[in-house]
Amino acid sequence: HLGQLDDLREQVDQINLQLLDLLSRRGELVAEIGRLKSSEGGTKFYDPKREEDQLRLVRQANRGPFTDAAISAMFKEIFKASLDLEETREQRKLLV
Amino acid sequence: HLGQLDDLREQVDQINLQLLDLLSRRGELVAEIGRLKSSEGGTKFYDPKREEDQLRLVRQANRGPFTDAAISAMFKEIFKASLDLEETREQRKLLV
């Protein structure tokens, strides 16, 4: 059983690295969206309607094993980290 | 600019679906690990050392744009959802 457990954990670690890669690409895209909004004079990055739209699409595609509530909780943390990224960049810009 | 914004958002939505797919596969693997532990008589699913090991690997691979702290926060939410999944299954088993 120990070999089996190690093998499963190795697969989880591989998925973690793929998640990191996707999250980082997503972070770059969101930063690009932020720059686009900034260049149009906007400074409001938090967009609850857009977040709700994203959650709806993801929930519609969800086939388990996670409940929709668990999926929403994970994505909300992703949204939060992305927003922090945007606000830090904006803050840095204001301080320059 | 609106077309550009829509295009970037479409790319984010596509990444969201890929994230959902990876998260769901990860959930299945963690459920399998839980079954393996259960069959060995264990009922303790929370394993802080294993979580710390996962975070270390992910932080080592992190090349931005997220800070290590932001990456850790997102992964901790993923760990939490996975643990809830395990505990719900275990609870269901105990109630049968």
TrEMBL record, chains A, B:
The lineage of its organism: Bacteria, Thermotogati, Deinococcota, Deinococci, Deinococcales. This is 3-deoxy-7-phosphoheptulonate synthase. The gene is aroF. It comes from Deinococcus radiophilus. Residues 1-90 form the Chorismate mutase domain. It comes from the Bacteria.
